[in-house]
C-alpha cells in the first residue's frame, strides 16, 4: 500500500511539472545529441510516376541525391508497390515537384534545393537504343513473328470452322 502511494505521489508531482522529465535527464540527452555533429534530418515526400501514392522518408539533409534515389527504390520494393521499378539507380531521375524541367544532379545534397517534395521517374530511353530498334524493324519488314503466328491462328480457325460445317 505504501509503494502504491509513493507511485501516486510521483505521478502527481510529474503532473504538476506538466508531465516533463527531470531537467538532469533532458540535459544529458541534449549532450548526447550534440555528439552527433548536429546532423539535420528532414522528412521528404517522393511521388513515383505510375505509383498509387507518394513515399515519405526521413533522410539526412547532407545525403546525396543518388543515395536518396537508392533508399526510395528499396523502400518502394519493400512495400511491394506496383509497378515494379527495379533497383538500378542509374535508370532513374529525381526532380523537384515545383520545377520539373531539369533533373537534379546525383552528387548534390538533397537538402540544398529548398523543397521537400520530389518526383521520381525513369530516365527516357537513349536515342541510340531507339535508332537500333527502328533499324531492326526496317530489316524485318512485314514478316515479323507476330504477324506470322496470327496468320497461322487464322488459318487454323478457318479449318476448324469448315470441318464443323461438314
UniProtKB/TrEMBL annotation:
Signal peptide as annotated in the record: none
Q: Pfam families per the record?
A: DUF7054
Q: Which organism is it from?
A: Medicago truncatula
Which residue range or ranges hold the DUF7054 domain? Answer: 40-121
InterPro entries xrefs: At4g22758-like, DUF7054
Report the domain of life of the source organism. Eukaryota
The name this protein carries in UniProt is Senescence-associated protein, putative
